[in-house]
Design brief:
By secondary structure, the protein is mainly α. It is built from 18 helices and 2 strands.
Length: 448
Amino acid sequence: MDTSGIRQEPVDKWILQPIKTFINKSSTSGIILFSSAFLAILLSNSPWSTQFHHIWEHEFSVGYDQFIIKKSLHHWINDGLMAVFFFVVGLELKREIISGELNEPKKAILPLAGAAGGMLFPAIIYFVLNRNGEAAGGWGIPMATDIAFALGVLYLLGDRVPLSLKVFLTALAIADDLGAVLVIAFFYTSEIDVNSLLMAGGLLLVLIFSNWIGVRNTIYYAIFGIGGVWLFFLLSGVHATIAAVLAAFTIPATTKISETDYVKKIQALLGRFKNADPNDKPTVTEEQLEILESVREISKKALTPLQRLEHSMHPLVAYLIMPIFALSNAGVELHSDIAEQITSPVAIGIFLGLLIGKFLGVTGIVLLLIRMKIAQLPDGMNRIHLAGAGLLAGIGFTMSLFVSGLAFTDEKLITQAKLGILCASIVASFAGYFIIKAASARHKGKTL
């Protein structure tokens, strides 16, 4: 943003601007996420390990009289804070379907097919190695891609990466998130309370009707979406994060003023502001205030509620919710039997599923579609870029950790799953980074 002509106060120069610059870097969220996971592992193997794990066991209650929900802090994070994460995922999905890379079959076929292959192959690899007992239920763990982490690694390469690769990986990860949501909804749901589910469905219909008649107040949707739909999903047995995605799809995605009319009105208001009599004082005049308020109202109408919410909530999710989730879920105690845990069928299944399964699924399906002349790689991308994207898709991390908490109740299996996820995510990060770096350096502008 151009700040010339804007007076910079000391707090702007020394505090706000550096923080804003740090946050606006695309790789920052991935760095913070990884740092939170590293801190969780460090604390889990420190003299304060017991106290650290006990923090997440504290119980909190919400409600009144006999209507009380009591859960541990860990559950509130996974069922509550992560619902906000999935709400933003839902907003991103709707935006991509309406006007992004998933809005036309020609543009959507590669990321959708890549995401499908990248979910099927890891599940098969895992299930081959874990066919029996509770461990068999973990097949959904290596299916997920961590969009923030994957894009954070990609953006570390800066301008050396073609824009088409960034768009492809973003669309792939978002489509992958949709698949993960469906897997959670259909395969990791406990016993269902039909009455609560019907209440949630009724409130969803209210939100859809509200959208149709033109209600655009985001607080209104928050009250019905979080206070109603999310709560009844939580009580129904269907995982509450699904409610967040469904509620996000009810948020209006249209503007109240066209681009042409917006430009005309803003130009007229700027003309009025220019001609208004200044008072040469720190405060503006009543006339100037009225004009500025009109600019703000018209600018608000030129934005969709969906994009306003997505833009405003993204920092909250990226820099607070996901790091808190990583801190509360990534902690692994490394005991003397670490070699046995890391070579267990669960850990190996997840490691190979994320690293090999994702790579084979994404690149294999995409190359098959290209060979069959059904689709072609986006301009600026080559097959080495594709291979790097397939590896970065193997960064499961947040989503995989989340699914592991749904799939297993045995702490031993959860620990093995975490080890597999962390090892695969680290290897996939470095391998994807260096392959894409080499591809961009040696094959820039060429198609292999």
